[in-house]
Amino acid sequence: MTTLDRPTLPPGPRAPKFVQTYRFVRQPQSSLDVYFKKYGEAFTADLYGMGTVVVISDPGAIEALFTGPAETIVTGESNARLFESFLGTYSLLNLDGPRHRRKRRLLMPPFHGQRMALYGSIIREITAQEMARWRTGAPFAIQHATQNITLEVMLRVVFGVDDLARRTRLRDAILHFIAGSYRPEAVVMAIRPAQIDLGPWSPWGRVLRTRGEVYRQIREALVDRRATGTTGRDDILSLLLDARDEDGNPMSDDELCDDLFTLLLVGHETTAATLAWGFWGVLGRPDVVAALRKEQRDLFGDGPVDLARLPELAYLDAVVKEILRRYPVTDGAARLLKVPTRLGRYYFPAGVMVAASSWLTHTNPNYWRDPHAFTPERFLAARPAPFSFLPFGGGLRTCIGAALASYEMKIVLLDVLRRADLRLPAGYAPRVLRRTITLSPSEGVPVVLERPIARG
Ligand code: HEM
């Protein structure tokens, strides 16, 4: 009998559930490496809050997972197991079916590739403002800087919050929420059964209260916008305020808050963490920095890049892709099987979650040569095998911010490397830490600015 005759769970770790959950939380990549070595491209794990999860890194099965029928291979219900308690019931991530389709259509326009040209000069201005604060000498965490940039981009460019005082309060509230996720006890964010509010000093109580302050600020931003009006505006806040359902009703404030909180958090944390990993990868390779600078100089001399010509920078594009491959900041993309389902060479039973692991797929030696090396050139030499590269997930649920994230990363890398000489302090090597929704580098990648920033 083959694995395709009847639905079967592949073998996997037999450690007690709490041990497996601990490893998932604390050793998000190294534990997967161990399982991959032992069980191969599909194995079954058992995790608190998520139940039975089959982790796959076989592109054939991933293709089937991403392109199969959305009615029986569902995403929202699966995401909700991890994210509902803090992203909210109405968050796009946690929806399925027609509600998901409608919301996604509504949210997409500001993230469409063609819109990027409008955002470029503001991203550049925000990056310059951040760099103006850097000082030579003492190391600083580059993730702190990239986070300031990506959060400001979300607030100004996507949300269209023009009022400086309002922006500052919203930014402070979200940074306070994220700072809390650095605390060791904030692992409760990844363990659903431990999410019990035992007051302001309890781990989950603290998460709820800092998140509550972000929601309060978002509600106030909604009040402001209702007062000033949405006419002629095409930012997310205005789009959502103007949206009406089939019966002509506007969205409730609870729904608006979940959507806005999701975009604010997901839209900047992921890009900030990827950029931080990116600086770690790039600064560790002076030849890559030199090649990036050369490409830029050959096309544009010593001045800034003309952003309309960004697509001509092929090496930069390869660097960004390699950062996304080598340092995936999410676990990947998961789906819940509502019926027994064939995925490539596997046949899995109903009721299990199937998670396409970006880490294991991106480091699968069957598809990537020397997968642990940071080698941008691999993306110049050949296209990746189908479904072996999934930084933004896939199918109907592909990340809506993929174009914005890549565009933003390119501008930040270009402008920082053109104007700043950064180095990594001796002896630093990052560990992979869970932080809100990302896998971030420990200490946020400390860097040292070697000499004052060159003039723009
Ligand atoms: C480097 C940065 C980013 C990475 C690595 C990333 C990664 C991902 C991944 C893996 C998914 C799951 C896709 C799936 O289930 O197939 C996702 C979904 C999503 N991302 Fe991103 N993302 C990034 C940036 C952004 C930005 C900038 C935004 C918003 C502006 C955003 C908003 C979303 C939303 C709303 C979803 C849910 C889509 C849906 O369920 O229909 N992401 N992202």
UniProtKB/TrEMBL annotation:
Sorted keywords for this record are:
Heme, Iron, Metal-binding, Monooxygenase, Oxidoreductase
Its family remark reads:
Belongs to the cytochrome P450 family.
Record-linked PROSITE patterns:
CYTOCHROME_P450
Q: Which Pfam families match?
A: p450
Named cofactor requirement(s): heme
SUPFAM superfamilies membership = Cytochrome P450
Question: Would the keyword Iron be found if you checked this record's keyword annotation?
Answer: yes
Q: Which residues form a coiled coil?
A: none
Q: Which species?
A: Nannocystis radixulma
Looking up InterPro entries in the UniProt record yields: Cyt_P450, Cyt_P450_CS, Cyt_P450_E_grp-I, Cyt_P450_sf, Cytochrome_P450_monoxygenase
Q: What is this protein called?
A: Cytochrome P450
Entry keyword annotation includes Oxidoreductase: yes
